[in-house]
Design brief:
Elements lengths: L2 E6 L4 E6 L2 E7 L19 E9 L7 E4 L2 E6 L2 H6 L6 E10 L18 E4 L15 E3 L1 H8 L7 E5 L1
Parallel strand pairs: 1-10, 8-9
Antiparallel strand pairs: 1-2, 2-3, 4-7, 4-10, 5-6, 5-7, 7-8
Length: 160
């Protein structure tokens, strides 16, 4: 497949490309702490990545994940009110893996073992500003559409 993803932190935008042609642009929310590679930084890693795994095919919209596993919950605004500090991972997960040793792969900068995803979040949190704990958040309908448009191994470039 000749599709790739370009994620611009400055614009808070994910672009789905086929070769050099733009297929679709989506709003995203990246890390509140900005760009960065280190484990524990709660920053969004930059550089060349790939989709390591796709998780959640066919599950209902707003399904809740913890540790990449379904909990059986379906998110609602009442869920958020009951647990306001929870970092909700909803609907689908595209788990990223870094491709650049020393920048986003291996050791203390490894994107995979930092558990950096592109994932759904409560739609009300999508305000067009960086607010995540390092991951790339999307609206639930958007992540489902994107999930169905890409394959594992798809290149992902994250930049400022």
């Amino acid at each position: 497949m000749s599709r790739s993803l370009d994620i611009c932190l400055a614009r808070q935008q994910l672009t789905l490309l086929e070769k050099d042609r733009v297929l679709k642009c989506y709003p995203v929310s990246t890390a509140k702490n900005g760009p960065g590679q280190l484990k524990g930084s709660e920053c969004t890693p930059t550089g060349r990545h790939k989709i390591r795994a796709k998780i959640g095919a066919g599950v209902p919209i707003n399904s809740v994940f913890i540790g990449r596993r379904l909990t059986g919950e379906i998110y609602s605004p009442q869920s958020s009110a009951a647990q306001p500090q929870r970092d909700w991972i909803l609907s689908r997960i595209l788990w990223l893996g870094g491709l650049e040793p020393g920048l986003n792969r291996y050791g203390e900068v490894d994107t995979t073992w930092r558990y950096i995803y592109i994932h759904g979040c409560p739609d009300e949190l999508m305000q067009g500003v960086p607010a995540s704990h390092g991951c790339i958040r999307m609206r639930n309908t958007d992540i489902i559409e994107l999930f169905d448009s890409v394959e594992a191994g798809c290149p992902v470039f994250i930049h400022e």
